[in-house]
């Protein structure tokens, strides 16, 4: 099963220890085939809305800063519990904050 893990912004400033632990964590997950993709997201948003034949494009941002998503990881896990454990390990490295996990539905 694939899961999309999204991270909201935090007030914890990264330091050298965090970068080293995160690098080792990413290498481990990549080598094991769990981590499929990861990245940070820029602050700009573009909203595309369709209604009938009309498509409207609006530049953002649209959400409160604390509600936005600043990073993501796409993981392949054997179970929901495994995905939650990956997220727990991530939160222990980066400190206080919030992450959201959503299963990626495939046909």
Automatic annotation (TrEMBL):
Residue ranges occupied by any YCII-related domain in the UniProt entry: 1-92
Signal peptide: none
Pfam families: YCII (PF03795)
Domain of life: Bacteria
Annotated InterPro entries: Dimeric_a/b-barrel, YCII
Assigned protein family: Belongs to the YciI family.
Protein name: YCII-related domain-containing protein
């Amino acid at each position: 099963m694939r899961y999309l893990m999204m991270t909201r912004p935090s007030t914890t400033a990264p330091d050298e220890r965090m970068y080293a632990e995160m690098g080792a964590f990413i290498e481990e997950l990549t080598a094991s085939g769990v981590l499929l993709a990861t990245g940070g997201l820029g602050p700009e948003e573009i909203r595309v809305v369709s209604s009938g034949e009309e498509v409207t494009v609006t530049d953002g941002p649209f959400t409160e800063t604390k509600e936005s998503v600043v990073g993501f990881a796409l993981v392949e896990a054997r179970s929901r519990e495994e995905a939650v454990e990956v997220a727990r390990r991530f939160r222990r490295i980066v400190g206080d904050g919030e992450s959201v996990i959503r299963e990626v539905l495939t046909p």
